[in-house]
Amino acid sequence: MSMSGGVRAVSFTRHGAGAARLAVQREAFRAACSERGWVAGGEVCQIGAGGGRGRAWAAVRRLVRLRRYDVVVVDGLDTIGASEGEIARELVLLRHAGVRLLIASTGWDTANPTVSDLLVGALRTVGAGAVAA
What gap in Å lies between CA 53 and CA 106, rounded to an integer? Predict the structure, then answer.
């Protein structure tokens, strides 16, 4: 599989309190894919709270594990969890499942293991109530 054009991306969006408008999330997905030369695939939308226990989030993870898509694109980290601890847990689960995540608003891509480690470490620190310097 070639690096350019061969990457199939799926968008995970969330419709609910605290989430960006769906149009904004969809535009972030399209822009992220076109910048990187990725194939913009389907969209899975969750109604209500962020990722974690939602059925839509489980479905999107399964699509990547089944190799239908190579990467999940979200607008922001809050799309995959309601709290810092939940987001950190999801990032660890994604890594163990071999699921790549791109956060469009920041450009963070967990294909780089350092990015994943830093995110999980920072979120766990914040989630534990420590004050970030």
Answer: 24
Contact call for residues 10 and 73 (beta carbons, < 8 A):
yes
Amino acid in the structure at residue 90: E
How many angstroms separate the CA atoms of 17 and 47, rounded? 9
- Helix (H) / strand (E) containing 102: strand 100-103
Strand partners, 56: none
Angle between helix 113-127 and 84-97 (nearest 10): 150
pTM greater than 0.70? yes
pLDDT in tens, 47-91: 876 666 678 888 888 898 898 999 999 998 888 887 888 888 888
Q: Where are the beta strands (DSSP E) in 48-85?
A: 71-74
Amino acid at 92: V
Structural contact between residues 124 and 83, judged by C-beta atoms closer than 8 angstroms = no
Spatial distance between the Cα atoms of 105 and 33, rounded to a whole number of angstroms: 13
